[in-house]
Design brief:
five-stranded mixed beta sheet, globular, Immunoglobulin-like, 2 domains, signal, mainly beta, DUF4138 domain-containing protein, disordered C terminus, Conjug_transposon_TraN
């Protein structure tokens, strides 16, 4: 009996399963799963979910229907053979989030395309005062700006500044990004294309106290807009209604600044990018 037990333990040694927080999805919002290293899907596809591996460390999930039973997708880490069991449920309000699987910050790859040091790009955009403001909005004593729209390699970056002048702290629940037509015909279904930032310096559950201000950087795959489209940036307050809505249009993309490549500094290959 003891020998059989030891054989069983040794056989199971190489496969360790990790339970993860629930990934909430909807038909209109894409939920993104970021991993620390290369992964692969090992679970079977389901007709209720659109699961797509965008990159080695990025998997996106979207729902095809509003009604489906709670599901689970299995993802395996290539280097360690660890298996992640990720529950998936439908939710309009909680869908569209960025989830860091295994809870650790995702490194920003400093040199990936055309010799770009994206760490240096982030530092350059984060420092100093805001400039070249694209859009701004104010509600309930909280004001936000989109500024420093830039192109570096094959990434589009911008800075999101948020200032709180109210006595009530402003806690950010999540930020949503999607491309949508500026004008829609009555009774015509509105098409939205959800996009997910590859790079962000925004921490989860960031709270802005009275008379405080933050500046966070977001980086995306290079994208384009037609004249009648806009990239919508929606900032949601946790347990509150002071939501903020901002836009980037085609004209703004035409005037974006280009950041030249910077040499990689030894020992500074990455910086921590935090989850939404």
């Amino acid at each position: 009996m003891r020998t059989s037990f030891i054989i069983f333990i040794l056989g199971a040694w190489g496969t360790v399963a990790y339970a993860q927080d629930t990934a909430y999805v909807s038909r209109d919002k894409t939920t993104a799963l970021f991993f620390n290293s290369t992964v692969k899907m090992i679970s079977r596809s389901t007709p209720d979910l659109d699961v797509d591996q965008k990159e080695n460390t990025l998997i996106t999930i979207k729902a095809f229907t509003t009604v489906f039973s709670p599901a689970c997708i299995d993802v395996q880490e290539v280097s360690t053979a660890k298996i992640y069991h990720i529950p998936v449920e439908f939710s309009c309000g909680r869908a569209g989030r960025r989830i860091e699987v295994n809870g650790a910050p995702m490194p920003v790859r400093a040199i990936k395309t055309a010799g770009f040091n994206y760490s240096a790009v982030i530092n350059k955009l984060a420092e100093g005062k805001r400039r070249d403001v694209i859009d701004h909005e104010k509600t309930g004593g909280v004001k936000a700006w989109v500024d420093k729209l830039s192109l570096a390699g094959n990434r589009i970056f911008f800075r999101l500044d948020v200032r709180n002048k109210s006595n009530l702290p402003y806690e950010i629940d999540f930020v949503r990004f999607y491309i949508r037509d500026l004008k829609t015909v009555a009774r015509m279904a509105t098409h939205e294309q959800e996009i997910v930032p590859l790079i962000t310096t925004l921490h989860k559950k960031t709270s802005i106290a009275h008379k405080r201000e933050i500046a966070k950087i977001f980086g995306f795959h290079r994208f384009s807009l037609s004249e009648d489209q806009a990239l919508n940036v929606e900032l949601y307050e946790r347990n509150g209604n002071r939501h903020i809505y901002l836009q980037i249009t085609q004209k703004d993309l035409e005037d974006l600044k280009t950041i030249a490549p910077a040499k990689q500094q030894p020992g500074n290959a990455s910086v921590a990018a935090n989850k939404l």
